[in-house]
Design a protein that fits this description.
Elements lengths: L5 H7 L8 E5 L15 H13 L4 E4 L3 E2 L11 E5 L6 H13 L3 E6 L9 H6 L13 E2 L20 E4 L4 E4 L14 H16 L4 E4 L47 H12 L6 E5 L6 H9 L7 E3 L11 H14 L6 E3 L8 H4 L4 H11 L5 E5 L19 H6 L35 H5 L2 H5 L5 H14 L1 H5 L1 E8 L2 E8 L2 E8 L5 E4 L5 E3 L7 E4 L2 E4 L4 E6 L1
Parallel strand pairs: 1-2, 1-13, 2-5, 5-9, 9-10, 10-11, 12-13
Antiparallel strand pairs: 3-4, 6-8, 7-8, 14-15, 15-16, 16-21, 17-20, 18-21, 19-20
């Protein structure tokens, strides 16, 4: 019998997403191919060998659709085309073909909750109250005193309602005023968006990352949100200076009708051999509850990620155990997708002030947790947050709340590839955001020449994960916290792994579970086991297989 090629096995696996490692690409900042200072699709294609060399399963590409770029692509004016800034549909097809040659799945970022105000749907919708698309967005009359219909707030600051003089009504925008919310209570809107899903699946994509998945549906009665007590406010979703945190968002998002749309969405995905989706759950109070709802039953999205590990506070051993136990409780039927960094938050190396040893331990931790994993570009280089001067800021969020909140530009600066110029090999022209000098010193080319660089650690860690079915698709059990040492077991098809992580700067001892164990994979530093005890130095970890 001929042994099947591993890539063919992976391609035939409908559950390839379960336990997958997904590499996020922010297209403006990955590689510029034409010297205009902005990354593009041909640039990404040229760098796919680097991504494949990491051993990841898939790439997630942030929006590249036609857009006025008020929110850098998360304001879509044409869901079925590529913005000329990034290239053409032909360039996208070439990217997909090359990725598939390299064994990489391709996931793209769909922004369905809102469009740009330059989208033809909105342009028609705002012309009158009785045109064919009049109800495609969320419109409402003012109160008698002319004020907005309720107290809903925008994540980007101020009211979530914008007055439109054409219709003499307000329209809803949970983000920028130029990002009007689509009306998911209208079946025609749902149909149009599902047609967009089919368009990209037919073009060869393997799945989607769904932006703000819990914002799709609003309360039909437009009831005002209640206040949130000060001691319950959480700045994970919005900075503390933003009054958005003063409300409990019961009605402006997280509506039960969203489940029906997600079932329709999943039915479309199931028409294709192995399409998948991961939803972003943006909620500070109910994130894990929503993850459980949206990933349950096998008829909605496959995975969700919430913001538990995207917060400012470095996760202690106790916090990691608490989150995993809550997932077991609230999303027992579902599947989590973990991330420490992305294009919206301060890079975790800076956010948590991690040493090199701590970064290595945390990277191995996320790669051993039950669930899938998203790694953000540059994470494999151990990049810190870039310090972007006010005069160089591009992000409207940072400009609005400066200086208490500097926005998202610091994590979006261009990727550093080599030391050939001040742009780190990203572009021959002036880059849209400046490249941090310390990023150039940690560029891909520099680290390739250093066998001890964190880049090689990531490759080894991802390869180890991929080689262990228990880490990819297995169950977890025996979650335990001893001091700042978090330990647990992963098991699959009769194989069991024991994983222990010291998440602190002081040594820690734990009891080894009963049985015979053999250390496997990479260990940071030296680990000693005596008389049934395991001693871990600061930021050390150990993984052992039961024999």
């Amino acid at each position: 019998m001929t042994k099947m090629d591993p890539q063919l096995i992976k391609a035939a696996d409908k559950d390839w997403w379960r336990g997958a490692v997904i590499y996020q690409v922010y297209p403006r900042s990955y590689q510029d191919s034409n010297g205009d200072g902005i990354g593009d699709l041909p640039g990404i294609t040229s760098r796919l060998p680097h991504i494949a060399s990491l051993g990841v399963d898939a790439i997630w590409i942030s929006p590249f659709f036609t857009s006025p770029m008020k929110d850098f692509g998360y304001d879509v004016s044409d869901y079925r085309d590529v913005d000329p800034m990034f290239g053409t549909l032909g360039d996208f097809d070439a990217l997909v073909a090359r990725a598939h040659e390299l064994g990489l799945k391709v996931m793209i970022d769909l922004v369905l909750s809102h469009s740009s105000d330059q989208h033809k749907w909105f342009k028609e919708s705002r012309t009158s109250r009785d045109n064919p698309k009049a109800d495609w967005y969320v419109w409402s009359d003012p109160k008698e005193d002319g004020t907005p219909p309720n107290n809903w707030l925008s994540i980007f600051g101020g009211s979530a309602w914008q007055w439109d003089s054409r219709r003499e009504q307000y329209y809803l925008h949970n983000f920028l005023t130029s990002q009007p919310d689509l009306n998911f209570h209208n079946a025609d809107v749902q149909d149009a968006l599902l047609d967009v899903v089919r368009f990209w699946l037919d073009r060869g994509v393997d799945g989607f990352r769904l932006d703000t998945i819990n914002f799709y549906v609003h309360d039909k009665e437009l009831r005002s949100n209640p206040a949130l007590p000060k001691d319950q406010r959480d700045d994970t979703i919005a900075p503390s200076v933003n009054p958005y945190n003063h409300q409990l968002h019961l009605y402006s998002k997280n509506q039960p009708e969203n489940l029906a749309f997600l079932r329709r969405f999943r039915a479309v995905l199931d028409e294709y051999p192995a399409a998948t989706a991961v939803g972003e759950v943006g909620d500070a109070q109910f994130g894990l509850d929503i993850m459980g709802q949206y990933t349950s039953g096998g008829d909605k999205v496959h995975m969700c990620y919430s913001f538990e590990f995207l917060s400012k506070t470095q996760p202690s051993a106790g916090r990691v155990a608490e989150v995993l136990k809550l997932v077991d409780e609230k999303a027992a039927e579902g599947w989590a997708c973990w991330a420490f960094s992305n294009h919206d938050v301060v890079r975790h190396a800076t956010r948590w002030d991690l040493s090199d040893a701590a970064q290595r331990a945390m990277s191995m931790l996320i790669l051993t947790l039950r669930g899938s994993v998203c790694l953000y570009q540059g994470e494999e280089l151990g990049l810190q947050e870039a310090d972007v001067a006010f005069e160089d800021l591009q992000d409207p969020y940072g400009i609005e709340f400066w200086p208490e909140f500097k926005g998202r530009d610091g994590c979006r600066t261009p990727m550093a590839w080599e030391k050939s110029n001040q742009n780190g090999g990203f572009s021959e022209g002036r880059s849209w955001l400046p490249v941090a000098s310390d990023h150039v010193a940690r560029s891909v080319a520099v680290q390739e020449q250093d066998p001890e660089a964190i880049l090689h650690h990531y490759r080894r860690a991802i390869a180890f994960r991929s080689s262990q079915p228990a880490l990819v698709k297995g169950l977890h059990s025996d979650l335990d916290v001893t001091g700042e040492v978090f330990s647990f077991q992963r098991s699959h098809d009769g194989e069991t792994l024991f994983c222990a992580f010291n998440l602190s700067d002081v040594p820690g001892d734990i009891e080894m579970p009963a049985g015979h164990w053999e250390t496997v994979g990479e260990t940071v530093g030296s680990v000693s086991a005596e008389a049934g005890k395991l001693r871990l130095g600061p930021w050390q970890f150990a993984i052992a297989k039961k024999i």
